[in-house]
Amino acid sequence: MVEIVDALAQVHEKETAIQTACLEVDKALFSLRQSMQLPANRSEWASTFSVRLTLINKEYRRSVKHDLQAMATRLRQIYGSSTTTMNIRSRAEHAFNVFEKLHAIFAKYIALYEERVRQRVLTPGDRIIFQRAIPRIRRSLREASDHVDTIREKLDRWQIYFDVLVSDTELEAFLQHLQAARVAQRTFEAKTAAVFGRVLDICSKRDSIVLSAANLALTHETTWLARGQKEIRYREFRREMAKYDDLLEQAATVKDTIGRLIDEVESVASLAHTPTVLPGTTGADISVSELRLAYKEYQQAQAACDAIDEVQVAHPRPVCQFLMCCRLPCRSTTSCRRT
Fold first, then answer.
1. Residue 129 burial by CB count (10 A; 0-12/13-18/19+): exposed, middle or buried?
2. If 0-12 CB within 10 Å is exposed, 13-18 middle and 19+ buried, where does residue 67 land?
3. pLDDT score of 139
4. Which pLDDT band holds residue 339 (cuts at 50, 70, 90)?
5. Are 226 and 192 in contact (CB under 8 A)?
6. What is the pLDDT of residues 28-86, one digit of tens each?
7. Half-sphere exposure of 76 (CA within 13 A, CB side)
8. pTM for the predicted model, two decimal places
9. Which of 170, 186, 207, 326 has the greatest CB tally within 10 Å of its CB?
10. Between 118 and 228, whose confidence is greater?
11. How far apart are CA 94 and CA 257, in angstroms?
């Protein structure tokens, strides 16, 4: 036997547990409404959401087009429109060749210096001059090597994106693909109607669970107290408690389901920022988000090429001086100059 007071305490505890589980569903729905800016009327969620996604997708494609055209124009303003200055691969090959030549010349510089020191044919003044130049040369070589690594990394990772920005043909083809890949409004309408239809079903299920728990608790309280007895049979008590357990399981299922449905809503919302990938003229996939970052990467690649040219210009003089002292021709690609 179970005392009525204890039985009703268990009833209220079970009802509270069910309400708490459903409260989590309410919180999730409130968060969904806030994040997706949905109206108070649930029946308007699907239609409002589909219209908004259509407008966001239109603005997304417009902003991508505007950004790419602006970046391409800016690159031409900075680097000119000639094939030589705009073709980063050609500039990179030139930088690699310069680095190899500088490396060979500097290696010969150091080897000949060490040889002349052993032969004792240098004056003390010459030895000091060239000794001081060696650390600077080695430092310059390390810096140039880092720039070469940067250029190679940029080309390997970003060349297909650079091609779109510097080629009018490729950019125009990409923008045509962008326009053709728009999401139709009816697609948004179908997807939002489906997912929000399931959301509303879950809302109805949640309301039904809370109402059933409240009615069940009221029935038990009224019935058991009306008997005028202090106790009820244990078998009856367990049978009635099982009804609450069933409602609690339903509430847990609703809670899990609403989480998955919110993920679905977010997935539909992400369609507004599509396409995210489009085919390039070579067939390779072009990421829209990475293409919008390619402007900065292109500038960094050009800056690395410039840095190698600066090494070439800044450091041939001590090398050439020494090679001339050794009666060997200097093969630097720039003329020696006083600094």
1. middle
2. middle
3. 86
4. very low
5. no
6. 999 999 999 999 999 999 999 999 999 999 999 999 999 999 999 999 888 877 554 56
7. 13
8. 0.75
9. 170
10. 118
11. 60
AA identity, residue 256: D
Query: How far apart are alpha carbons 235 and 311 in whole angstroms?
Result: 92
Return the closest-CA partner of residue 136 out of 3, 338, 316, 325: 316
Question: Do residues 305 and 94 make contact, with C-beta atoms less than 8 angstroms apart?
Answer: yes
Omega cis (within 30) before 275: yes
CA atoms within 13 A on the CB side of 324: 9
Distance between CA 267 and CA 264 in Å, rounded? 5
With CA atoms as reference, report the closest residue to 76 among 68, 123, 172: 68
| Paired tokens of 211 | 């109402």
Instruction: Kindly state the percentage of the chain with pLDDT values over 90.
Output: 60
Taking the chain, what is the end-to-end CA distance rounded to the nearest angstrom? 105
d(CA 206, CA 42): 14
C-alpha span between 139 and 323 (Å, rounded): 20
128's CB contacts (< 8 A; 6+ apart) are none
Length of the chain: 339
Q: Map the chain to HEC letters.
A: CEEHHHHHHHHHHHHHHHHHHHHHHHHHHHHHHHHHCCCCCHHHHHHHHHHHHHHHHHHHHHHHHHHHHHHHHHHHHHHCCCHHHHCHHHHHHHHHHHHHHHHHHHHHHHHHHHHHHHHCCCCHHHHHHHHHHHHHHHHHHHHHHHHHHHHHHHHHHHHHHHHHHHCHHHHHHHHHHHHHCCCCHHHHHHHHHHHHHHHHHHHHHHHHHHHHHHHHHHHHHHHHHHCCCCEECHHHHHHHHHHHHHHHHHHHHHHHHHHHHHHHHHHHHHHHHCCCEEECCCCCEEEHHHHCCHHHHHHHHHHHHHHHHHHHHHCHHHHHHHHHHCCCCCCCCCCCCCC
